[in-house]
């Protein structure tokens, strides 16, 4: 498996043991260094929350970075192609991290950074032991369930990686590891369940290039 490192302002690296050690480390999560402007290469308007319409939901790239890193570690995202697909998805769905609740058209209970539908949010929340008590209180209130997730940065930004791990087929994930645009299209249509658009594709290309995915 290929883990690229970048010399650009956005630098994602694979966590590997130093080359001086006898045995290589097993694959670990892709992480990105919080160099100035790092995540901005993939989410160009995320340098600031100034003027954000939903200011209480907005996160800058610097704020989002550690949460995205945590999600990669938690859910075992180990390839640059998978990581680029995830970041491009959440950047698109949240307007470069500007909101985490569906405001357009305003579907109750839809949200987190990848704009999950309420049934997925409930399933995701149930997978987090710390939310057991909160879920018991939330009951069938989809807005309350969403609030449990969006009130915590790791849960909020972790939904896309959770979704990839639990909902994407091995075929889709193995395809993303190759980094091809055709593999990304399959991720969008087969796993995410939506259509490929020029805007989505542009976001993928930015993320793949920034991550050093081969061929981009």
Descriptive report:
The chain is mainly alpha-helical and 216 residues long. 48% of the residues lie in helices and 4% in strands. The chain contains 9 helices and 2 strands, in the order ββααααααααα. It has a two-stranded antiparallel sheet with strand order 1-2. It is globular and about 50 Å long.
List the helices and strands and how they pair.
Blueprint: E1 11-14, E2 30-33, H1 61-75, H2 80-93, H3 118-126, H4 132-138, H5 142-150, H6 153-167, H7 170-178, H8 181-192, H9 198-211
Antiparallel strand pairs: 1-2
Largest sheet: 2 strands, antiparallel
User: Which series of helices and strands comes N to C?
Assistant: EEHHHHHHHHH
Radius of gyration (Å): 17 Å
* Arithmetic mean of pLDDT: 86
Short description:
The chain is mostly helical and 216 residues long. The chain has helices spanning 61-75, 80-93, 118-126, 132-138, 142-150, 153-167, 170-178, 181-192, 198-211; strands at 11-14, 30-33.
Keywords:
disordered N terminus, globular, 216 residues, 2 strands, mainly alpha, two-stranded antiparallel sheet
């Amino acid at each position: 498996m290929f883990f690229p490192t970048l010399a650009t302002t956005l630098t994602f690296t694979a966590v590997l043991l130093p080359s001086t050690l006898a045995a290589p480390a097993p694959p670990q999560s892709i992480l990105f260094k919080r160099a100035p402007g790092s995540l901005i290469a993939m989410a160009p308007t995320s340098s600031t929350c100034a003027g954000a319409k939903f200011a209480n939901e907005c996160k800058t790239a610097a704020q989002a970075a550690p949460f995205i890193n945590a999600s990669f570690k938690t859910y075992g995202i180990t390839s640059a192609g998978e990581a680029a697909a995830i970041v491009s998805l959440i950047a698109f769905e949240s307007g470069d991290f500007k909101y985490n609740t569906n405001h357009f058209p305003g579907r109750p209970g839809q949200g987190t950074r990848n704009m999950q539908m309420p049934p997925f949010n409930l399933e995701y929340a149930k997978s987090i032991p710390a939310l057991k008590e909160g879920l018991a209180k939330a009951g069938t209130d989809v807005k309350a369930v969403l609030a449990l997730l969006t009130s915590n940065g790791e849960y909020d930004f972790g939904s896309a990686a959770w979704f990839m791990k639990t909902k994407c087929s091995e075929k889709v994930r193995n395809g993303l590891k190759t980094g091809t645009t055709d593999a990304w299209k399959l991720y969008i249509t087969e796993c995410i369940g939506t259509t490929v658009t020029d805007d989505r594709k542009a976001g993928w290309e930015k993320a793949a290039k920034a991550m050093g995915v081969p061929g981009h």
